[in-house]
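Preliminary data (for renewal application), flavin-adenine dinucleotide complex.
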Amino acid sequence: MEGSREENETCATREVEAKFVIVGGGIAGVTCAETLADECPEEKIILITASPLVKVVTNYQQVSRTMETFDVEEKPSSTVESQCPNVRVIHAFVSGLQAEEKMLTTSDGKRVHYDKLCICSGGKPKLIPGQNPLVVGIRDTESVKSFQKKLSAAKRIVVVGNGGIATELVYEVEGCEVVWAIKDRSISSAFVDEGAAQFFLPHLNQKKKEEASALVKRLKYTVENEGGSALSPTEGEGDGSFGSALGPDWATSRHMKGASSVCPQVHVDYQVEVVRVMDRDQMSATHLKTHTPTHFAGDSEQEWPVYVELSNGCVYGCDLVVSATGVIPFTDPFLPGNTFEVAEDGGIKVNHKLETSLPDVYATGDVCTAAWERSKLWLQMRLWTQARQMGSYAARSMVAATRGESISLDICFELFAHVTKFFGYKVVLLGLFNAQGLGNDYELLLRQKKKNCLFRVTRPTLSIWRRPKNFFLI
Ligand code: FAD
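Predicted structure:
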């Protein structure tokens, strides 16, 4: 693997090689590249990404031994190259992996040879089945732009899903009626239980974000030319599937306004699933009547471009359906022809060194599934905190393997820790914060201080802190 870039890459064969190759310009991939560059300034590193802008962690702060906060900024790929001179960023879509030959192929005809490879290709949104163009998923900058455009003409939307994306969206959208369809008994259940959900509920229909919070003191980079779009397998203009997942202020920093002058109106339907999505013709072929929540405008006779039938029998007419039901690890280009062990959730299984089941191939971030024996207080959640931690640890693991050194699991995988914001509140999640794995066999002590900050602690964490009981404090 010796030789200069010019010697190793000829235009005729489009052969490229490097000691370390990383696929993905999201937080996991960029952190991995930066850490590798830091650890091995003499080695050649290639970062291949389909997205024109890369995600870079900034303002990093270690809050405690396991807790950290940081911002995520979108930057041109040249930023990584200028900060890490031994990293070269290639803007291309990886279309195949020949693991036995230690080679990747790209959709523009390059063949990239590696000593060690790290796959950081993230996830793709799970969409409600069916091909209705009025059903949108939210994942990257391009999909948000497309959503904003459609929202600006919408008077009512239906949001399906109960995770972080849905929670943030429902809170941020203004000038539009919102039906929020969730499969659980309480809102935001991926992060908070029913008690905390009650605390947040009044904020759904309150005046939304403060003016101040819309002010983001960060440089924003945008892509103006077509050549700068996220690449798809056919290298056409990005279709929203292959850009990096969004950064922390994806919703607060954007204009999320519908076409109506109504104050925030959110109606939540609990414990429901989508039965089907219908266009106007399909709806009129049924004998179903639409349902209009009492505090919404319009009536059951009003016509809509799209209709959503829920499992509780309610049919809602709306202008747009947002499918925010999570992401699936994006493994498509890497699995064919290779014998990766894949987890039930579709992620590439990795061991405690973030090695996949194939030699010299690592995986980190949203694309991987942690398959090691985990600490009792840690769980995998596809969040940017873990994308950063895994990206950094994967790099150190790759370097250790190259040098024949051993490496022990990073302390960050001992205790789950995540800092985020819901409904304008800063939320700190620690350990098995949602009583994961406890079934119904636990007690909950609840103390609420009106309009104040929120602390959540679950039993395993308390046992570390030597507290006597399960405990939940708002
Ligand atoms: P990604 O950021 O998805 O990056 C994947 C990269 O791989 C992209 O650059 C893509 O272009 C590239 N790529 C993929 N396939 C190929 C290929 N074949 N060839 C070349 N390049 C390829 N997390 C939080 O912690 N808090 C939140 O509030 C939060 N909100 C979110 C809101 C939205 C709308 C979304 C979608 C996610 C949110 N997340 C949040 C999750 C978080 O963004 C992800 O967990 C994190 O960004 C994953 O990083 P990653 O690097 O693994 O993947």
